[in-house]
């Protein structure tokens, strides 16, 4: 009988709505960064994301945003192909990723003009009772826009296609948001009701789709990150000969938690189950 090597049982104490299990800032002396990928090309098919010629993310569809993938800082090549294929390559880009930094990489624009956009994320912990939010404009046919609380204050002003706003801290709560013409709150392109901005969480709101009606129509896509999440580095396991490696994850809390696994293989980091 094969001997089962149980390398660690992890007890997870993270809040609900955690979209990634990596912290906002790396442990001192660890040269790692965090990358998540957003598929925002409205007419592109589901895609595979290749990192240094290895498929790291598979079957990513329009409006999907991945959890953060933990990677050693350094130089990387990212390629994007239709799911299950190696050609044609829609995107082929080299990027340098700095340690202790979180990134969002978006596949943006219509398929004929698809391009990668790289944004630096601020995942530092919001103040007590606060949430942090920013807005990324990824609708290729929408004009510059404002984002405001319906019947309330202006949050972000004059954001152009392919542009990200600054981050803004707001009191946690439930909001209805309007995406409007610049300087004209009466011209509403999109209303997003009942957005629950949870205390202690960092939110990114993406405007995706086509303002002219689509398909797909203009829509809001949210990604959330809770900085109180944690990362654990597990001891090396063995899968050769008569050994199996098992990773056991236990959540003793009453609320669900999202935990992402990244396998540090001989050929590079590979996203595991979530």
What's the quick description here?
With 274 residues, this protein is mostly beta strands.
Describe this structure as you would to a colleague.
The chain has 274 residues and is mostly beta strands. The protein is 0% helix and 51% strand. The chain has no helices and 20 strands. A four-stranded mixed β-sheet has the order 5-2-8-9, with no helix packed on it. It has a four-stranded antiparallel β-sheet with strand order 4-3-6-7, with no helix packed on it. A hairpin with a 6-residue loop joins strand 6 (74-82) and strand 7.
Which runs of at least 5 residues are low in confidence (pLDDT < 50)?
A: 1-30
Cα-atom Rg, whole angstroms? 20 Å
Number of helices: 0
> What shape does the CA trace take?
globular
The pLDDT mean sits at 84
Name some characteristics of this structure.
20 strands, 274 residues, globular, 0% helix, mainly beta
List the topology elements.
Layout: E1 3-11, E2 32-39, E3 47-51, E4 54-60, E5 69-72, E6 74-82, E7 89-97, E8 102-108, E9 115-121, E10 130-137, E11 145-149, E12 154-159, E13 168-171, E14 173-181, E15 184-197, E16 202-208, E17 219-225, E18 243-250, E19 262-265, E20 268-271
Parallel strand pairs: 1-18, 2-8, 10-16
Antiparallel strand pairs: 2-5, 3-4, 3-6, 6-7, 8-9, 10-13, 11-12, 11-14, 14-15, 16-17, 19-20
């Amino acid at each position: 009988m094969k001997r089962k090597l149980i390398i660690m049982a992890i007890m997870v104490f993270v809040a609900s709505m955690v979209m990634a299990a990596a912290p906002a800032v790396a442990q001192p002396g660890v040269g790692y960064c965090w990358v998540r990928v957003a598929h925002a090309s409205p007419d592109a098919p589901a895609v595979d994301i290749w990192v240094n010629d290895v498929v790291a993310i598979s079957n990513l569809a329009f409006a999907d945003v991945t959890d953060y993938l933990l990677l050693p800082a350094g130089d990387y090549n990212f390629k994007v192909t239709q799911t299950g294929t190696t050609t044609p390559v829609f995107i082929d880009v080299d990027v340098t990723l700095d340690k202790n930094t979180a990134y969002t990489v978006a596949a943006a624009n219509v398929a004929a003009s698809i391009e990668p956009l790289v944004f630096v994320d601020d995942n530092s912990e919001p103040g007590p009772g606060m949430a942090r939010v920013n807005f990324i404009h990824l609708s290729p046919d929408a004009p510059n826009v404002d984002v405001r609380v319906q019947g309330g204050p202006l949050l972000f002003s004059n954001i152009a296609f392919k542009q990200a706003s600054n981050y803004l801290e707001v009191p946690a709560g439930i909001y209805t948001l309007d995406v409007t013409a610049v300087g004209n709150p009466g011209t509403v392109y999109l209303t997003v009701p009942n957005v629950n901005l949870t205390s202690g969480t960092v939110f990114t709101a993406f405007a995706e789709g086509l303002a002219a009606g689509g398909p797909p129509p203009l829509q809001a896509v949210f990604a959330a990150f809770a900085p109180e999440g944690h990362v654990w580095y597990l001891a090396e396991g063995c899968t050769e000969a008569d050994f199996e490696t098992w990773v056991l994850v236990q959540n003793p809390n009453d609320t669900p938690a999202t935990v992402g696994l990244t396998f540090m293989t001989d050929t590079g980091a590979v996203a595991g189950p979530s």
